[in-house]
Amino acid sequence: MTDTIRVFAGDCTITTDGDTEERRRGEMVALLKPDDTLLVHDVDGYQPVEWLTRAETAHASLDGDSFTLVAATDDRRVRVDCHACHGISRYPGSVAGIPVGTCPHCDGTLTRANGTVSCLGCRREYPIPRHASVGDDTCDCGLPTMRVEQGAEFELCIDRDCGTVLEAVRERFDRKWDCPECGADMRILRRGGIIAGCDRYPDCDTGFSVPNGRIVDSCDCGLPVFRTRSGRRCLNTNCEAFGETRSEG
Question: CB–CB of 36/57 below 8 Å?
Fold first, then answer.
């Protein structure tokens, strides 16, 4: 997320309405964030003197050199009334992420946060899988590459225009396994996530989510066994034969 953080400073009265009404006055700084979070800080300690996180409604009203801020939910309301304004400012803001490289388009810093790699310069964004790791290598396009384990390890550009995880998994595993119900080929498809689904759908609706992890074995049912973060598992999480395969391994 990239947007504007608004900062208001002055001699203010804070009125909080909830189960009871509370009123405080002092010289404070208030931040109104893009997600409608209101934070009000005084000089005492690190914690805001008042706040309302991700309010259902939030707005700022300006009247000459004064301001009023109101943030509210169904059961709580915070109002900041300025008596003497010290300043009102706007600043560009973004999510604070982990630096992962340099943007080839503008030489800005690329950061990773919340499943997205974004540029602090030109604001381009590249959604990536949350389980992917971004390394030091770069694609021919100049962007960083990521490592994804979904049946095998794939190294792909963070830009989907250079290739997607679905395309890589499909190229490696499409038609590689037989449907345990009817024997038809299992196709690699996207249905929300990446799945292996029977080629005879809708006559056969067998389908399994392809987990994050590497294939390390074959199950007695004929499907692959994956090593995931939570342990070994058959592609079919309800496989009755997997217990025997696991004990043999």
Answer: yes
Q: Is the pLDDT of residue 241 over 90?
A: no
| Tens digits of residue pLDDT in 40-51 | 999 998 999 999
CB count within 10 Å of CB 134 equals: 19
Spatial distance between the Cα atoms of 230 and 246, rounded to a whole number of angstroms: 14
Tokens representing 14 are: 């804070």
Q: Calculate the CA dihedral of residues 125, 130, 131, 135 and round it to 10 degrees.
A: 30
Quickly state the pLDDT bin for 1 (edges 50, 70, 90). very low
pTM comes to 0.76
Q: Per-residue confidence at 248, pLDDT binned at 50, 70, 90?
A: very low
CA distance 131 to 194: 14
Element (H, E) at 240: none
| DSSP conformational letter for 249 | -
What DSSP state is assigned to residue 171?
A: H
Task: Decide: residue 132, CB within 10 A, 0-12 exposed, 13-18 middle, 19+ buried.
Answer: buried
The Cα–Cα gap between 141 and 109 comes to: 16
